[in-house]
Amino acid sequence: MIQKEHYIIISLASNINHEANLEAARTQLTQLLSEVHFTSAIYTEPVGNGQWSAPALLACKARMVNGQCPKYLNQLCKGTTALGMNLLNEVLKEIEKRLGRTHNEDGIVTVDLDLLEYDGERFHHRDWERNYVKDLINEL
After folding, report:
1. Could you tell me the pLDDT band of residue 102, with boundaries at 50, 70 and 90?
2. pLDDT single digits (tens) 39-78
3. Spatial contact of 79 and 5, defined as CB atoms under 8 Å apart
4. CA neighbours closer than 13 Å in the CB half-sphere of residue 13
5. Cross-strand partners of 6
6. Cβ–Cβ contacts within 10 Å for residue 17, how many?
7. CB of 59 closer than 8 Å to CB of 106
8. Using CA atoms, how far apart are residues 132 and 121, in angstroms rounded to an integer?
9. Is the Cα torsion angle 11, 36, 83, 19 positive or negative in sign?
10. Is the model's pLDDT at 5 over the cut of 70?
């Protein structure tokens, strides 16, 4: 039986040990997906400086560089998968955990993997408005 391959776009981000964490995420995604392509990676300012939870704001202040919260390193990935959308999202969150993501609102994002598009249907609509997505999407 031939399984349908689904076209996907994933956003990768990290704000600590940037290069190593994105490299680990790329390795995991390369094992998970077919026909994988990654854009270049670019640094961006964190979004939501004034809207963070108290623990996240404290973590940011503790890790400030030149008076600013740590930047994010962002990258996009396209590929295909036979996984259904829900299962793919579960696997992406499992990869995040395996690579050290805790989701404990401390402002540290070891790695963030968000499914932006699945078979032409877009998700994380605010991300599509961010400059890094607008800029990097052309590389796919």
Report:
1. confident
2. 999 999 877 555 555 555 566 666 665 666 778 999 999 9
3. no
4. 22
5. 81
6. 15
7. yes
8. 19
9. negative
10. yes
Q: Which token pair is 59?
A: 């973590």
Cα separation of 136 and 71, whole Å?
A: 17
Rounded Cα–Cα distance for residues 70 and 63 (Å)? 7
CB atoms within 10 A of CB 44: 16
**Does the model's pTM come out above 0.85?**
yes
Q: Which two tokens stand for residue 50?
A: 């004034």
Q: Is pLDDT of 38 > 60?
A: yes
Residue with the two structure tokens 């998968």: 81
CB neighbours of 83 closer than 8 A, spacing ≥ 6?
A: 6, 91
Q: Is the dihedral of CA 118, 120, 125, 128 positive or negative?
A: positive
Q: What angle do CA 70, 73, 76 make, to 5 degrees?
A: 155
Q: What is the DSSP string of 43-91?
A: EEPPS-GGG--HHHHHHHHHT-BTTBPPPEEEEEEEEEESS-HHHHHHH
